[in-house]
Amino acid sequence: MPIYLYIDRGSVLHRMHPTVKVLALFVMFWSVYWVDNPVALLPLGLLMLVVAQIAGAWPNFYRLRWLFVLVILVTTIAWMVFYRKGVPLVNLRIISLSRQSLMFGLGRGLKLAELLATSVLFLSTTKVEEFTVGLASLGVPYRAGFAITMAFRLAPLFIDSALTVAQAQSLRGYDFDKGGPLERVRRYVPVIIPVFMGALRKADAMAMALEARGFGREGRPTSFIEYPVAPRDIMFSVILFLIGFAYFMIYKTGYGAIRPG
Amino acid sequence: MIGVIGASAAGKSTLAKCLNRIVPAFQDGEFEGAVEIDGNALDGALVSQVAATVGMVFQDFETQIFSTNVAHEVAFAMEQVGMDRDEMRARIGPALAAVGLAGFEHRDPTNLSGGEKQRLAIAAVLALRPRVIVMDEPTTDLDPDGKAEVFALIHRLRGQGLTLIIIEHELEELRLSDRVLLLREGELIADGPAAEVMANSDLLMECGLRPPGLNQVIAALGAGAHAIDVDHAEAVLRERFPSLPRAAEAAQEATADPAAALAPPIDTPQQRPLIELSGVRFSYPGGPPVIDGVDLTIAPGEFVALIGQNGSGKTTLAKHLVGLLKPTGGRILINGRDRAALRPAQTAAEVGYVFQNPDQQIFAATVLEEVCFGPRNFGLPEDEISRVAGEVLKAVGLEDAVDRDPFLLSKGERQRLAVASVLALRPRLLILDEPTTGLDYHEQLRMMTLVNDLNRTGIAILMITHTPWLVAEYARRVIMMFRGRKLFDGPVRRFFSDPAIFEGSSFRPPEVTMLARRFGAVALSPGELADWLRRHI
Questions:
Q1: Which of A189, A193, A212 sits opposite B47 (nearest CB)?
Q2: Do B345 and A157 touch (CB under 8 A)?
Q3: What is the predicted ipTM?
Q4: Prior bond to B285 cis, omega within 30?
Q5: How far apart are CA A74 and CA A80, in angstroms?
Q6: How far is Cα A130 from Cα A24, in angstroms, rounded to an integer?
Q7: Under an 8 A CB cutoff, do A216 and B128 touch?
């Protein structure tokens, strides 16, 4: 089973300059952050669907489909429990279903789903190396940028290791599904400790291997791959700035909020 | 080419790491003396500054690959030293060609085999054109195919004027070294030509190493010489003992003289089988079959070696026995009960599974707690648990370590602890996945003596292994998997007596059994062959 999200295609999104990709990630997070109203969030959602189509990222969305459904449903319902404003249309005791709570819950669900979708799109079209280059060109120090991108590369390895550890413990008669919600979380200790210790060992070995390849010398490393800036990169950047600005204005004018009534 | 040999903790890695300043940069401690490379003292240099002169390849190939494509991986070190782009481009092709990975430029390293990954790591080091390459147990985590690939590459590289320093504990691979350094507890015990150091079987044993099997046979017959391969060993023995039989003569003799077969009796189990598989198939959704119609029974008390190259279905098959995977066809019975109706935890007390890497299950604060974990999951009374824990810790030789922190144990001890914690559930079948990987000879012997003793107490053993001599010297039955099917299932002696069985597969029998065949004998261990030869001199 492939554990990385990167999909090797030549789409226009794949060919975007790494800096623009990282900028796009930032602008999407920024735009989503400012608005709560699902109607205001909808255009971003639609944009992401179009981008997914262009990038050929559907397989990743399909793989994560249940996560998206869960995020939207659970968040929407959870907020209906806590957000008790507006005139209830139906009062189911725990859940207060009013137009306002529904909008707010849906907005939160959509927000999370869009953050998730942005990340999926980014990882579907960006190689780890491009991520490093993109971060560096936006002023993040090379070592810090490398560390961040390394975390992304290692995550699948740790997930894999966690699965093996969970298998080993279940074969020692361990039942992960016993007890209430808190107890269940606590029951993952026999998985977390071996994975964590393994990660420490690996980190140590990796640090040695990195330095043995010259990592950490003085002076800026060169880059094997050239990332020329194409006219379309400038165009994309302008569009991104406009989107970011537009969403900030939506927030400023109050259209991004949920209105009572 | 210099081979560095010694048991675990003899100081091999530490010595090697001094050459590129990882010691003392990464390790606390006192460092004295001087290291010179090519006439230049390394005092005070950073590891990253030495990188272009001394390249280093590590054991764990997963932790030395950082990129998403092969070309980029080779470029990584060159980027770090600030090389310009044209020079990098010019060097990538030759570096990949040198390790036999030409044409792999755009592949994703995560999809390469272990051997390919390790060769890629070597290419990445080669691209900097260092004077010295140090390889710290480069093949320990590899299967036999991967090992063979990497050593073939090492022998190609030595012809190119590079200084190669190879740390290994399987001495067979270092027989062609120009020079061998033998370490024990941090001291240099011997330093000389391979023929000299490796012919001294007694000294190697004393230092916790397994002398090459061929040399053991030669030494046992009093002809102290160093054989570089089976042909050479045969020539040495025939020269010394001209009366030794030829394969053709002895074959007839073997059939005529039952004593010549030297076989311990093969168990013919009459009891009800512990495990029964009929027509078991398995494939991942949309994938080709990984297990393709396997019938198999395992009786109580058997000792079975499960062998086959990577991807042949060994581990997949074993995971079916414990219920981690469910067959897509066929049927599995555990003690007469249908596996499909049972969850993995429900049969944990019947079939135990020790994973290859003990660190993937150890989590408790003390050795005792670790062993008690399984029985507690089954809700056994505490007095019963401490009795069982005491017994199994004694069985694995860790009875004096009950209060120790498992993470501070040696690799061999951690491996035995993992066995103990599975044994604590009193399984009737114990599955061991590569129980000796990464252990030195003494630790391997200790582990295998333990497994053998457990087997004598009636526990059936199913051991997945790549190590030919373990199969020959310990197992009584061999199951060989090939592309998801059983290629062979029978007594170990029959397996080794007929080379046609594993012809075409990547299985390489121990050299001792190949040497025995030259004389028309079937021998599974150096001792057995030496005895046979003595009777035929």
A1: A212
A2: no
A3: 0.88
A4: no
A5: 10
A6: 13
A7: no
pLDDT band at residue B434, thresholds of 50, 70 and 90? very high
- Candidate CATH numbers 3.40.50.300, 3.40.1360.10, 2.40.160.60, 3.40.50.1820; the one for domain B2-200: 3.40.50.300
Bridge partners of B463, per DSSP, are B305, B432
* DSSP collapsed to 3 states, A12-46: CCCCCCHHHHHHHHHHHHHHHHHCCCHHHHHHHHH
Residue A255 has a CB neighbour count (10 Å cut-off) of 13
SS3 B488: strand
Asked if the Cβ–Cβ distance from B64 to A219 is below 8 Å, we say: no
For residues B141 and A158, what is the distance between their CA atoms, to the nearest angstrom? Answer: 18
Inter-chain CB proximity A171 and B128 less than 8 Å = no
CB atoms within 10 A of CB B443: 20
Among candidates B285, B357, B358, B375, which has minimal Cα distance to B325?
Answer: B285
Residue B527's CB is within 10 A of a number of other CB atoms, namely 14
Token pair of B349 as six digits: 């007390």
DSSP output for B90-113:
HHHHHHHHHTT-TT-TTS-GGGS-
Domain ranges of chain A: 18-136+231-253, 141-212
Cβ atoms of A7 and A125 within 8 Å: the answer is yes
d(CA B464, CA B480): 10
C-alpha to C-alpha distances, B239 to A194, B121, B236, nearest whole angstrom: 56, 44, 5
pTM: 0.88
pLDDT digits 0-9 by tens, B502-529: 887 778 899 999 999 999 999 999 999 9
What is the rounded distance in angstroms from the CA atom of residue B473 to the CA atom of residue B492? Answer: 9
Task: Dump pLDDT digits (tens) for A2-20.
Answer: 457 888 888 999 999 999 9
pLDDT at position B266? 47
In CATH terms, the superfamily for domain B275-350+427-531 is P-loop containing nucleotide triphosphate hydrolases (3.40.50.300)
Tokens of B115: 């051997």
Q: What is the DSSP string of B131-191?
A: SEEEEESTTTTS-HHHHHHHHHHHHHHHTTT-EEEEE-S-GGGGTT-SEEEEEETTEEEEE
User: Residue A168: its chain B contacts at CB < 8 A?
Assistant: 353, 355, 360-361
Domain ranges of chain B: 2-200, 275-350+427-531
Helix B526-536 vs helix B213-220: angle between axes, to the nearest 10 degrees? Answer: 40
